[in-house]
Amino acid sequence: MNVSSFIAKRYFTAKKSNNFIQILSWVSMIGVAIGTMTLVIVLSVFNGLQHVLRTVYGTFDPDLKVEIAEGKNFTISEDELNAIRAIDGVAGVAQVIEENVVFSYQESQTVVRIKGISDEFLAHNQLDTVLVTGRVRFEERGKDFAVMGIGVAYKLGVLMESNSLEIEAIYPRKIRPGALMSANSLNRKRIFPAAIFQVEQSFDEKYVMTSLDFASDLTNFGDKRTSLEIYYAEGASESRVRAGLNQVLGAGFNILNGDEQHADLLRAVKIEKLFVYIALSFITAIASFNIFFCLSMLAIEKRKDVSVLFAFGADQKLIKRIFLKQGGIIALTGAIFGIGLGVVICWLQETYGLISMGMSSSLVQAYPVKLVWSDVALVGLSIAIITVLTSYRPALLASRIEPIKYLD
User: Fold this and answer.
1) Exposed / middle / buried, residue 195 (Cβ in 10 Å: 0-12, 13-18, 19+)
2) DSSP symbols for 342-391
3) Do 288 and 390 meet the contact criterion of CB atoms below 8 Å apart?
4) For residues 170 and 189, what is the distance between their CA atoms, to the nearest angstrom?
5) Which end of the chain is less packed: N or C, by CB atoms within 10 Å?
């Protein structure tokens, strides 16, 4: 241990002649500990929220989604579909038609987002894990079935217990410009409710899933598709699958992974996390100003000691390092306790779910928390920067003491 570290440690552990400095030192450590703990917990909550969003959307979204870059829909040949299925890492590809239609059930009507999807979806979907009632099926015994979000079912007042009540799906036909609307201007098809799912509010209140043939007949899309859904085989490489898709489809298509399908939402969460981190770091910096006052008063108290050190040949750099390290010891002690408490609290919440979200119908019962060690390292770096900024001025003043004035 070098001289500056030894003296800084002695100053930290030794009893101060002025009791107020001792109290201020403890207040500084507690302030840093609380700020550090808060940063660790809040950042972990945001990480948990991102993880929950990815998990929830993962039950509904494919591994990769292919959309046309310009326009609304596209056509794809059977040869191209077979070429996609042959790509290394692809376990399945489902064709999709998405369109807004009107659903009418008894006396209720609402606009829904119908999603007609080919049978390959049934082999790879995870909707079974989020079903409220019923079972996933699209066609059975010549009847068409719909799997709808719980919000849609609530708006329509769907009675799952009654198998005789059908839903009428309505979609406008293409009409010539200037032609008058009539009853023949609308496509109408009957469909039975098969199941109700609950994923996330934006999905639950608008999505209805059914067979590709039903959606194609209703919307008159024919062989046009709005997207393709790609499902990975075990051990698949995303980069290889993307490269294969680009080779088969060529330019003009967007290939989106799970995060890219909800890029705006995840970006909003990351931006909010950044601003919360900045705000809490600023609050921690304010709390750390106690280190500034503590070191300033300690420098006044130790003026005679500093003068003696100068008399023994110490230079200003040594004195400055002593007080910088003294501030570092105070901040480090508080940061260690704060990080330790934050990690323990996050572990308890993640393991036992101590704090509930208060929503019995929620898919996530407790507040989501996910500890990421890079965030812990970032918090530690923030505390280090704050410590240097708050300790530098008192250390500089202590190094400029005139020894002649304080030597007896």
Assistant:
1) buried
2) HHHHHHHHHHH--SB-S-TT-S--B------HHHHHHHHHHHHHHHHHHH
3) yes
4) 7
5) C
Rounded Cα distance, 113 and 94, in Å = 18
**What pLDDT is attached to residue 361?**
47
Residue 356 predicted with pLDDT over 80: no
CA torsion, ordered 48, 52, 55, 57, to nearest 10 deg: -140
Question: How many CB atoms sit inside 10 A of residue 178's CB?
Answer: 5
CB atoms within 10 A of CB 299: 23
d(CA 228, CA 81): 10
What pLDDT digit, counting tens, does each position of 110-126 carry? 999 999 999 888 888 77
Task: Give bridge partners of residue 147 from the DSSP assignment.
Answer: 195, 209
Q: Which two tokens stand for residue 68?
A: 């046309």
DSSP tag of 174? P
> Tokens 């030794």 belong to which residue?
14
Residue listed under structure tokens 């979200």: 357
DSSP H stretches of helix in 196-250 = 201-204, 212-219, 238-249
CA 256 to chain centre: 17
**Quick one: pLDDT band at residue 25, thresholds 50, 70, 90?**
confident
CB atoms within 10 A of CB 369: 25
H or E element at residue 134: strand 131-134
